[in-house]
Amino acid sequence: MAASPRFGGHGPLLCGLALTRIIGWGSTFYSPSVLVSALDRDIGLNTEIVFGGITILLITGALVAPAIGRRLDREGTRRSMCVGAVACALGLAILSLAQGPVSYLASWFVIGIGHALSLANVGNVTIAQLMGDRTRRVIGLMMLVTGLASSVFWPLTAALMDAFGWRTTLLVFAAMQIVIVLPIYAAVPRFHHLPPSAPAGAVAASLAAENGRVAPEARRAAFWLVALAFSASGLVSWGLPLHLITLFQEAGLTQAEAVWIASLSGPATIAARAVDAMAGERLPAEKVALFGLLLGPVMCLALPLVPMTTMAAAAFVLLFSAALGVISVARATLPLALFGRNGFAAMLGRLTVPQNITFAAAPLLFAVLVERFGADATLIVSAAIQAIGFAAMLALVRMLARA
């Protein structure tokens, strides 16, 4: 990445920002998966409370994202990201001192503020402000790297816990925010909507890119179609994968078979993101999203209709996860293509509200579906929810074709 002239001299900074994503997501969002047993043993927190921290993180992000987005459009992302790194460090330090559910959950509120200020949408806005018309490919590459966060931080968290305990582990993560992440954020250049010395042609091209493809009178309808499409797909993508092992076991696979098949999800998602990052610019982002939103429900409907074998389950995981990988990239890049760079951060902030609320509700909803209705019914409900997202995206594609 650093050596390619296509990144306009920003290669080293983009590599640094990729590192901050791995540290940011790995030390916050993914860490409870490893910490849960120690938190239960030492301070009596059950699984629901431990993962309730993630729910607080998402809801906090939904509450503050619109205001943060408006500020990012005015002054760029550097100050926000630096403050976010400090807030994440503070939240992790408070988490290391937790004595019970109240202090534990309060720490996640602080982490959620830091997360909203420095990760989530802010990283994509930074790339849009740095890379211009190369944003889609770079966001795809960044999301590809972000997919490694769990692979890096799950074993790292476990190793640090074994050596020093969970409290010291969280202090190490807090120190990473200050020592590694903060200096990288501080290197982000100040944002200018247009270079002062840009030639007239470049100014015209930049202004065209800022306007987006949606006419002003159609923006409200387009916004709600995008929000509905990605919220519906996100409700499934943040809920169903957490219960794949249980679903496969209920359908007759052994635990060992279910585990290794479910583990195919990560590589399939990363592979789909890689393909989209390399070749996706040849297709409009909304048509790529439409394909993913069609493939997901088709797979959920097909699995209950075929005998449950290891091959059928593996095919489902590979194709369903590939669909999720494509949609996750489209979720970050489609708003830029539709609405332009002008107000991009504010638009992402507004989209965060319905999306984060559905993301936060997804694990509990699917836990109830699996427990009360079983595997086949859960897959059918998943297909129905995703079909709503597909219908919304299809309406958006037709709207753009008419325009």
UniProtKB/TrEMBL annotation:
- Return the protein name: Predicted arabinose efflux permease, MFS family
Q: Which UniProt keywords apply?
A: Membrane, Transmembrane, Transmembrane helix
Any one Gene Ontology molecular-function term assigned to this protein's record:
transmembrane transporter activity
Transmembrane annotation, as ranges: 12-30, 50-69, 81-99, 105-126, 138-156, 168-188, 221-238, 258-276, 288-306, 312-339, 351-371, 377-397
Occurrences of domain Major facilitator superfamily (MFS) profile (ranges): 1-401
